[in-house]
Design a protein that fits this description.
alpha+beta; elongated; 8 helices; 65% helix
Length: 183
C-alpha cells in the first residue's frame, strides 16, 4: 500500500469522526492539522525524527505531544497523532493534512486553484478574476497566483486535475502545429 493511500485513509477516518461530532469539530480538526503541518514545515528536523527508525515510539509520542500542546490541539487530534506514532505513521502527517484539507473543501463546496500569468496581477485584477471564476463555477474559489514570464501572455488556470491553458505560448504552439499540417 502506498503512503498516499494510507494517508488518504487516515484523513478520511479523522474526517468521519469529525463529521459525527459536528461541523465545528470538522473545522477545528482541520485547523489543528494545518498548524501541525506548519510546525513540520518550520522545523524539518522534527519531520526527520518522525521518519527515523532509531527513535522509539515513546520518544516520537512525547515529541508530537509537545507540539500538540504548543498548538492547543483538540483531544481527538491528539489521540489521532498518538495513534499515528504508535503505528509508525507520523511521517505521513503532511499528506494526511493535505487529504483532510481536500475533504474539507469538498464538504464546504470550495474549489482551489492556481492562476499563472506572465506578469504579476494587482489585487484588484486578482479579485475581479476570482469573482468571475466564482460566478462561472457557482462555487467559492480559493486562488493562488504565480508569475511565469515564459508563457508570454494570457493565463494558465489549474483547478484540481484540470488545466485551462489560455497562454500566448500555447496559442503560438497551436498555430505552429496548424502551419506544419498545412491548415
Amino acid at each position: 500500500m502506498t503512503g498516499n493511500v494510507v494517508a488518504s485513509r487516515y484523513a478520511g477516518a479523522l474526517f468521519a469522526l469529525g463529521k459525527q461530532s459536528g461541523p465545528r469539530e470538522v473545522e477545528s480538526y482541520g485547523r489543528d492539522l494545518d498548524a501541525l503541518a506548519e510546525a513540520l514545515r518550520d522545523g524539518p528536523e522534527l519531520f526527520r525524527v518522525f521518519r527515523n527508525p532509531l527513535f522509539s515510539i515513546e520518544e516520537k509520542s512525547r515529541l508530537v505531544s509537545a507540539v500538540l500542546d504548543k498548538i492547543s490541539a483538540e483531544k481527538m487530534v491528539r489521540n489521532f497523532c498518538l495513534l499515528l506514532a504508535e503505528k509508525e505513521r507520523l511521517s505521513l502527517l503532511p499528506e494526511i493534512q493535505a487529504h483532510y484539507s481536500t475533504l474539507l473543501d469538498v464538504e464546504n463546496g470550495v474549489l482551489r486553484g492556481t492562476v499563472t500569468t506572465a506578469i504579476a496581477l494587482d489585487e484588484e485584477k486578482q479579485g475581479k478574476l476570482k469573482e468571475r471564476l466564482e460566478r462561472q463555477a457557482d462555487r467559492s474559489i480559493v486562488l493562488g497566483f504565480n508569475e511565469d514570464p515564459d508563457i508570454l501572455g494570457g493565463l494558465i488556470l489549474t483547478v484540481g486535475d484540470r488545466i485551462m491553458d489560455a497562454s500566448l505560448r500555447a496559442q503560438l504552439g497551436i498555430l505552429k502545429e496548424n502551419i506544419k499540417r498545412g491548415e
